[in-house]
Amino acid sequence: MVLLSITTIMEDVGIDEAFLDISDEPDSNEAIVERIKSGIYEKTGLTCSIGIAPNKLLAKIASDMQKPNGMTVFTGDDIEKKLWPLPIRKLYGIGPKTEEHLKAMNIQTIGQLASLSMESLIKRFGHSYGYYLYEAARGIDESPLVTHWEPKSFSRETTFQVDVKDWQVIARTIAELTKEIVSDMSRRHYRARTINLKIRFDDFRTITRATTIEGYSGSEEVIRKAAFACLKRVELARKVRLIGVRVTNLEKLEKVSLPV
DNA sequence: TCTGGGGTCCTAGGACCC
DNA sequence: TCTGGGGTCCTAGGACCC
To answer: How far is the C-alpha of A37 from the C-alpha of A31, rounded, in Å?
Structure first.
């Protein structure tokens, strides 16, 4: 609510982050930051860090630069000075695997990443991600704020305290997870066509199996049966550490309640 | 560094159809 | 009968984010 009083163009990112489009706000950056900080402090007693930049990618990085209770302004002119010296891992979308990969190529900073050609990045990382890295290293990000979205999947998973071998326990767990998912789904008025089962073994190997059914369903029985059909296709040679169930391929039901 | 849960997106390969 | 191209759907796995 604090943030919505600033602007209604807002994208929630998880529980404690958001992007705000303040490009049309008449107040100065400093004034807006002050309103946000004091508003959040009054409501929650918490401080926050704020980044102001021409796009989401840079705003995210900027907000990270002065961590407790800070504010960083990033302009298009700061790319070389502020972005390029940073380690690659600071770039949104670069995780441990890509970091490792790039370091093996002797790329340590975002600036060094920016020295690679688009062709070589696409060759190494595939079309979409290679192109993303090329642009991100230059601070380019045209992605709009997403103010409304629909879920693409519902899932539940659980890790056992002790690795299990007992088929009964596995089956019961699948049934329980399914029940919770179906409850989520029906509360939010969705039905699904594809049911995924995820199993992690005691050696951390993780496999998935999917079943796509004839039409969309929100029936606990139908979805549980599909999950069991997936389970049948798994060779349970090792103990199981984690079980997960996910439904994808969703259809939103209209407010007028339809039979499930 | 190794901890868990709920998500998203991407890629590759196979099946099937025209 | 064989070869090949293009499109779509499905499955399995991987990487990343909060």
So the answer is: 10
